[in-house]
Design a protein that fits this description.
Chain lengths: ~180, ~90
C-alpha cells in the first residue's frame, strides 16, 4: 500500500486494486489521534503535577531562598496539571462519563476498565498514605501535625485529581486509534 | 484432587473485513448500520476486540449470514482457497 499527500487537504491512498480519497486526518496534529505512547506520560504528568507543586513549594517555603528562584518551578508544575487536564479532556471528551447512552459496547467496556483502574490507583494511594502515616506515628513515634495548609493542600489535590483520574485512566488504557484507511 | 480449570482460549477470528470490502462498505457505513463507533469496526476486524453475542448477531443479520460464517474460534481458510477447493472437488465428482 502506498500513501502520499496531494494538495488541497486530501490524503490519497492507493491500494493494490482500488483508490480511495479522504480528508486528511493523521497528517495534522490531532488530539483525538494521540498515540497511547504519548498519552501515558501526559496522564502521569497531569496527575503528579499538582502534588509535586505542593511538595516542591513546601521544601522551599521554610528556607530563606527567595520565591523568584523556586516559584517558576511551582508554576510550571501546576501548569503541567492544568495543560495535561485540558489535553486529556480534549482526548477523552465525554467518553469517561458514566451516564452516556451513546457509547457502544467497546467504549463502555473501556470506560468501565478505566474506572476500575482509577479505583485501584486511588485505593493504592490511600493505603500507602495511611500506611506511611501509621509507620511514622506508631513505629517511629513522631507526631504528625495536620495544619491548615497541609489540609487545604490535600483537599485541593483530592478535589482536582479525583475528577481527573477516570479521564487519565481512560487515556492510559485506550489503545492506539486505527487510521481511517487501514 | 481437582486441578485449576484451564484458561479458556479467547481468540475469535472473523471475516468482517472481507465481507465489508466485498459489499463495498466503508467502516463508517458499517458502523452506522450497526450503531457502533467506526473504530470499533476496525478493532473487530483486527481481532483486537471480541464482540458481545448481541453485536455478533447484529453483524450476522446485517450481512445476511449465519454467525458461524463470520466468527469462528478457529482461523478461517482464505475464501479464495475455499472457493477453488470446492471447485476442484465438484470437478472431481463429475
Amino acid at each position: 500500500m502506498y500513501t502520499y499527500n496531494i494538495p488541497y487537504g486530501y490524503l490519497y491512498t492507493r491500494t493494490e486494486n482500488h483508490v480511495m480519497t479522504g480528508q486528511v486526518g493523521p497528517t495534522r496534529f490531532n488530539v483525538d489521534r494521540l498515540s497511547q505512547r504519548s498519552r501515558r506520560p501526559i496522564a502521569a504528568v497531569t496527575l503528579l503535577g499538582l502534588p509535586a507543586m505542593y511538595a516542591w513549594s513546601s521544601i522551599w517555603r521554610s528556607t530563606s531562598v527567595p520565591v523568584i528562584v523556586w516559584g517558576p518551578v511551582s508554576f510550571l508544575l501546576i501548569g503541567l496539571t492544568i495543560a495535561g487536564g485540558f489535553v486529556l479532556y480534549r482526548f477523552v471528551r465525554h467518553r469517561a462519563e458514566l451516564a452516556r447512552p451513546d457509547l457502544d459496547e467497546r467504549q463502555r467496556q473501556l470506560r468501565d476498565h478505566a474506572y476500575v483502574a482509577s479505583y485501584g490507583v486511588l485505593a493504592t494511594v490511600v493505603v500507602a498514605l495511611v500506611g506511611t502515616v501509621a509507620v511514622i506515628v506508631m513505629v517511629f513515634g513522631h507526631p504528625i501535625v495536620l495544619d491548615g495548609e497541609l489540609v487545604s493542600a490535600i483537599g485541593i489535590c483530592i478535589g482536582t485529581l479525583i475528577p481527573l483520574l477516570p479521564m487519565a485512566a481512560l487515556a492510559w488504557v485506550e489503545p492506539d486509534p486505527l487510521s481511517d484507511d487501514a | 484432587m481437582a486441578g485449576r480449570p484451564e484458561r479458556a482460549e479467547t481468540t475469535t477470528y472473523n471475516r468482517l473485513a472481507v465481507l465489508r470490502t466485498e459489499r463495498g462498505l466503508s467502516r463508517q457505513d458499517l458502523a452506522r448500520a450497526l450503531a457502533v463507533n467506526y473504530q470499533t469496526i476496525g478493532y473487530l476486524e483486527r481481532g483486537e476486540y471480541n464482540p458481545s453475542l448481541e453485536l455478533a448477531l447484529r453483524i450476522a443479520e446485517q450481512f445476511g449470514l449465519p454467525v458461524e460464517a463470520i466468527f469462528s474460534r478457529q482461523p478461517f481458510v482464505p475464501m479464495s482457497e475455499q472457493l477453488y477447493a470446492d471447485r476442484a472437488r465438484t470437478e472431481m465428482t463429475r
